[in-house]
Amino acid sequence: MKLGAFSDRLSGHCGFLFTELPLSERFAAAAKAGFRAVEHPNLFATPAAEVAGWLARAGVPLIQTGFPAGDASKGEKGFAALPDKVAYYRSTIEPTLDYVEQLGCRMVHPMAGVRPAGAEPARLWETYLDNLAFAADAAKVRGMTVIVEPIGPGSIADYVIDDPLKAVEAIRAIGRDNVKLLFDAYHCVCLGHDPAALIRAHAPLIAHVQIADDPGRHEPGTATIAFDPIFEALEAVGYAGFIGCEYHPAAGTEAGLGWMRAASA
């Protein structure tokens, strides 16, 4: 595996990596390990000024984060597609953008949510498009991008936006130029897609990329995904962003970083 042009564009997902450490230390640990950026889905329990201090001391930018997604222990995975949560969802938009702006972050992900039993798919879809557009219009005022991440059933059962092609359809349907795709190679492969082919087909929509190997969702090189064609496709289409490393370390974060050194050589 060769990272090529992306060897200095790796982002450490600190919701998955360095979890051996308190959150306050993870960004610095990621920078020390060679990551040039970081990401995390939910930092709201800590005041923005404090998180901004962690980032400044680590010397890395926060590439992407999320809008509030609810209580995972209750099965909540976002609200953007849920008709009975529209008021709550919309009430979180401006406060989240205020918070994220203080961190210098420019990409935010509103999770769609889990499909309620008996819900009409058409109503969920209509709600999602309306709410995605609402977030996009608010973000555009601040020069921010709203990203859509499709998440397959192997990771979240009954997630509303469960396929990359569905995400592409939503992005095109609302027609906002600041709504882009978070392309996750792991989810793509799990759903039976060819990630390199999808990259080439939908390159203009891709704002961020994440990787993990399959099966296991561990670090690259531990399972079956061929990453070279993925990196080659990204380079061929001129992808200029970061590669987010969103994987569960097989045996501890530090112990699993050898793939980065080998792939960058």
TrEMBL record:
Membrane-spanning parts: none
Keyword Transport: no
Keyword Cytoplasm: no
InterPro entries in the record: HyI-like, Sugar_Epim/Isomerase, Xyl_isomerase-like_sf, Xyl_isomerase-like_TIM-brl
Signal peptide boundaries: none
UniProt keywords, alphabetically: Isomerase
A Pfam family the protein falls into: AP_endonuc_2
Domain Xylose isomerase-like TIM barrel: 27-262
Family, as annotated: Belongs to the hyi family.
Name this polypeptide is given: TIM barrel protein
Species this protein is from: Methylobacterium brachiatum
